[in-house]
Amino acid sequence: MAGALLTPDEAADMLRVSTKTLQRLRGRGLPYVMITNQTIRYRPDDLENFIEGRIQQCRTARKTRASGTTTSKSGVVDFTAVAERTITRKPKR
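The structure assignment produced for this chain is given below.
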């Protein structure tokens, strides 16, 4: 055996989650060792591998606007031209 087995409380502390969340993660593939029907333990290597398998890269990238136009039911509207007309109008007195 490479290392000592962790209790659910110790495993939850290692993952920084509650024991209830740890229980849910077991249902989603978190490996565990069932000693008896009521005694469950976790191998530290399995927890580390579980963490490594869940690392995600940031998927949000800044999107640039293609143009100032958009299509609606009434056709293509150039909102930049509408905005310019609104800005260049003289204020009413």
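Interim note for the steering committee: Residues 44-53 form the longest helix (10 residues). DSSP finds four helices and four strands in the chain.
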